[in-house]
Design goal:
This protein has about 750 residues and is α+β, with helices and mostly antiparallel strands. The chain has helices at about 1-15, 15-35, 50-60, 90-100, 140-155, 175-195, 195-220, 230-260, 265-290, 300-330, 335-340, 365-375, 375-390, 410-425, 445-455, 490-510, 520-550, 555-580, 600-630, 635-660, 670-700, 710-715, 725-745; strands at about 70-80, 105-110, 125-130, 160-165, 400, 430-435, 460-465, 470, 475-480, 510-515, 595-600.
Length: about 750
């Protein structure tokens, strides 16, 4: 591996103009396809194999033209203080707004609240249900503007009018905070390198990789029905790993230059050693992201594949474009003072090891490593107990999908949600759709009636509406209004109670009863997440464990890496619960509304954090492995690893934290939560697990850390991540050159 990458780096360096041109062409072609493609993204979530999805598909089949997947909006009206919505003047104003809504090009129907009895018992609040012929992501901006204009007409008539529903959903944006994250990353790079050129290269190459990724995602959004959050997640991951991977190669190149090697040779060695770590670190991230497909939820599968593609591009850019750009930069990547001291003739012999210039002195990393080696037990206990305390809130983790109730109170969606809850009860915001499939029943009407009666008798049901039949008369829909809010545990219990009664109804009436609707869909998503988490962990951690055995040729080091990851990710989940669910420091992080954690969050966070955690494990511990292979004792190799890698790993972690933290400013609650979760997870993993737990455990294990059974040693391929074979090859070439030199002198 190291030898191949050594040659690849030298080739890219020599053909730097061609390599740079090829990446410009790739970016331009991808951008051209993106510009000519529709960028309309989906907001739909399908959950194959769940009852809610099965019922949804049944409704599509039995109620043709009803557009069950069409966008919906609720326009809520409240009368002025002291008046009723049924007063002639107010009811006329409501009628005009509803009539105007019904004329919309994409509107299927706008229901008159007075005919539909959608008026609160105290007659102060009413709402109109507006359904559209197209789904939310196909809704035009004109249709959304018509909805907003209709609400404004009602306000001008003296009413309080608020609008909710998925028709109001907007494409998420990240705002200026994302740019701030990149700016902080640039500052960290400048401080770490002391050179504008060296600091600019990782940013430039990361932006190239992300640009290609986003352009490709945009081009295939409609054909593959990609979700609105897919490009944001791919950008988040691609930008973070792109900067980090380039950072490690540039840092190693600077170390080789500082030891006096020619730029061509320095690029080859940097790509061969640091590039090998980049390849395997990238593989662990890709495994974690692609592994999301085992959950069998299309949105997660597509997000994982897209983000995995961004990582692959980041690796390719780091291995090809970085060496090419280093060819243009030459020694300008070194600080100005250091360039004058660096001369090829002062460099080491080819057979000698070249210590990295970055962090080569006994700096903070070296002093910290020696401190940990002196007190490994104390450091280990403090680290584990500290993360354990942060993980405590995770015991109270509650999962659900976001609805209008999770929106900030400043939004019209949230105000509409609150008005509905105030006037009609909290369950009206999350009605359940009970589908009665009476195709095999002798008396469909009797079956639907018996089902309605059974539902009305359940404790958690506020109301069960009369059944609505399809044209064939063999399928009925029953709208059930729970007594509790959509995201409450009581509503989840009610869904389970209805499904428990379904078997008895089928036995007596011959009709199948299924529960669907957005609330039931959210409950099924949460259950599917819970069921998939254990198999996902086994698959991803198992595959990465095998990969790390190949990288480190050890059993205990990969095991320690996996256990450390689990500790950091649970601590990060606990932090997410504390901030987004409990409301701790909510104002600091811009969390306007607390509530259940996103159903997709735990498994998505596990996948992303695992891949990123293994990045630091590979980058830091391969330097220790490299030192150990070259003859150092276990304790000496830990110190060397920190001396040569701690500063760079710390800089990389700060950059990644900055990039992720930038997404906390997103308007989309899922992106905000993912950005926060990943930022704190990287903080815990890089600065607690990798910087404290890893050296402490290695100090306690000693030589046992690098133990590999003899039978396994014969089976596991030697991929030469630490560059031992490359070193021997270079030493052999140098020896042959020395033998030829006297002959040339005599000539």
């Amino acid at each position: 591996m190291a030898t191949f990458l050594y040659r690849l780096g030298r080739l890219a360096f020599r053909r730097r103009g061609l390599v740079a041109l090829l990446w410009v062409v790739v970016l331009a072609v991808a951008g051209g396809f993106a510009a000519s493609a529709s960028s309309a993204a989906s907001s739909n979530i399908t959950i194959p194999g769940t009852e809610a999805q099965k019922a949804f598909e049944l409704l599509e089949d039995r109620f043709p033209g009803s557009s069950p997947d069409g966008a919906t909006a609720r326009v809520v009206f409240k009368a002025p203080d002291g008046e009723k919505i049924t007063d002639p003047e107010n009811s006329a104003a409501v009628g005009e707004v509803v009539a105007g809504l019904a004329k919309g090009d994409q509107v299927q129907q706008a229901v008159d609240p007075f005919r539909a009895r959608a008026v609160s018992p105290d007659q102060t609040v009413a709402y109109s249900q507006v359904t559209y012929e197209v789904s939310g992501f196909e809704l035009t901006e004109e249709s959304r503007e018509e909805l907003k204009a209709a609400a404004e007409d009602g306000r001008e008539a003296g009413l309080t009018v608020e609008t909710g529903g998925d028709a109001m959903a907007a494409i998420p944006h990240t705002g200026a905070a994302e740019v701030i994250g990149v700016a902080i990353a640039a500052i960290v790079l400048l401080i770490a390198f002391g050179s504008l050129v060296a600091a600019g290269l990782p940013l430039l190459t990361a932006l190239v990789g992300v640009g290609v990724t986003v352009a490709v995602i945009t081009a295939v959004t409609v054909p593959f029905d990609l979700n609105t959050t897919t490009p944001i997640l791919a950008t988040m991951i691609g930008l973070a790993v792109g900067i980090d991977y380039a950072l490690f190669i540039v840092s190693r190149y600077r170390a080789e230059l500082a030891e006096g090697r020619e730029p061509l040779e320095a690029v080859g060695r940097a790509t061969g050693t640091a590039g090998s770590a980049v390849v395997f670190a990238g593989l662990t991230v890709v495994i974690a992201l692609v592994g999301l497909s085992v959950v069998n939820i299309p949105i997660l599968t597509k997000m994982g594949l897209a983000a995995g593609g961004s990582v692959v591009l980041a690796v390719l850019v780091a291995l090809t474009l970085i060496p090419a750009l280093l060819g243009f930069a030459g020694q300008k990547v070194l600080p100005r003072k250091q360039r004058a001291k660096t001369a090829p003739e002062d460099g080491p012999e080819d057979g000698e090891d070249a210590p990295a210039a970055v962090g080569a002195k006994d700096g903070a990393g070296t002093r910290w490593a020696r401190f940990v080696l002196r007190r490994p037990v104390a450091v280990l206990l403090v680290s584990v107990v500290g993360l354990g305390l942060l993980a405590v809130p995770a015991k109270d983790l509650q999962l659900n999908l976001p609805d209008d109730g999770s929106q900030p109170t400043s939004t019209t969606q949230r105000r509409a949600y609150d008005l509905i809850a105030e006037g009609f009860g909290p369950g009206t915001n999350g009605p359940l759709i009970v589908t009665v499939d009476a195709e095999d029943s002798d008396d469909p009407e009797a079956a639907a009636g018996a089902t309605t009666e059974k539902l009305q008798g359940l404790d958690g049901v506020a109301a069960a509406m009369p059944p609505t039949f399809n044209k064939a008369g063999d399928t009925a829909m029953i709208t059930v209004i729970p007594k509790s809010a959509p995201s409450s545990a009581a509503t989840e219990d009610l869904v389970h109670d209805i499904r428990a009664e379904a078997g008895g109804i089928a036995e007596t009436t011959g009709a199948d009863v299924l529960v669907t609707g957005q609330t039931a869909m959210a409950i099924d998503v949460s259950q599917k997440m819970d069921d998939a988490l254990a198999p996902y962990l086994v698959l991803v951690v198992g595959l990465a464990f095998l990969l790390l055995i190949v990288v480190f040729r050890s059993i205990l080091v990969p095991l320690k890496a996996a256990l450390g990851f689990l500790l950091s990710v649970v601590a990060a989940l606990g932090s997410v619960v504390a901030v987004f669910q409990w409301g701790w420091l909510a104002d600091v992080f811009g969390v306007e509304q607390t509530g259940p954690v996103m159903s997709l969050m735990p498994i998505l966070m596990v996948g992303l954090v695992f891949g990123l955690a293994m990045d630091y494990e590979v980058f830091l511990v391969t330097r220790m492995r490299e030192a150990h292979v070259h003859g150092e004792t276990p304790h000496e190799s830990v110190v060397t690893g920190f001396k040569l890698g701690a500063r760079v790993v710390a800089a990389a972690a700060l950059i990644m934290i900055s990039v992720f933290a930038g997404f906390i400013g997103s308007s989309e609650s899922m992106i905000k939560m993912i950005g926060f979760g990943l930022a704190v997870a990287v903080l815990f993993d890089a600065f607690v697990i990798r910087m404290a737990v890893v050296p402490a455990v290695l100090a306690l294990l000693g030589k046992s850390a690098w133990w590999l059974p003899s039978w396994l040693d014969k089976v596991v391929p030697n991929v030469d991540v630490e560059g031992e074979k490359l070193q021997r090859e270079l030493n052999g070439s140098a020896a042959k050159a020395d033998e030829r030199e006297p002959v040339a002198a005599r000539d």
